[in-house]
Design brief:
Helix content is 67%, strand content 0%. The protein is an all-alpha fold and 93 residues long. The chain has a single domain, classed as Orthogonal Bundle (Helix Hairpins), CATH 1.10.287. The longest helix has 24 residues.
Length: 93
């Protein structure tokens, strides 16, 4: 089960990446992973990887080197969540 702290981080990334609002009602971590990456459950591995790389490019902390430490830490947390989501989906495929 996903702890409350992780759920808050999920909610932040869902809101900021524009993922589906169905995230809030789901209990299955794998379904949350699909929402975070903004892909359908029946999409191909190529589409999943493309979504993953797109989000990593957008939120990677190295893109925010001139930003404050707080923003860099926030981006680091987002990339950890994106990595978690990608790994969660990879286990299924």
């Amino acid at each position: 089960m996903v702890c409350l702290r992780i759920m808050k981080k999920f909610i932040n990334i869902v809101l900021e990446t524009g993922a589906s609002q169905k995230f809030f009602t789901e209990q299955n971590p794998q379904e949350m992973a699909y929402c975070i990456l903004r892909v359908q459950e029946d999409c191909s591995a190529k589409d999943i990887r493309k979504a993953y790389l797109s989000l990593m490019k957008k939120f990677h902390p190295d893109n925010y080197t001139t930003a404050s430490i707080l923003i860099q830490e926030k981006m680091s947390e987002k990339t950890k969540l994106i990595n978690w989501a990608y790994n969660e989906i990879k286990r299924k495929h």
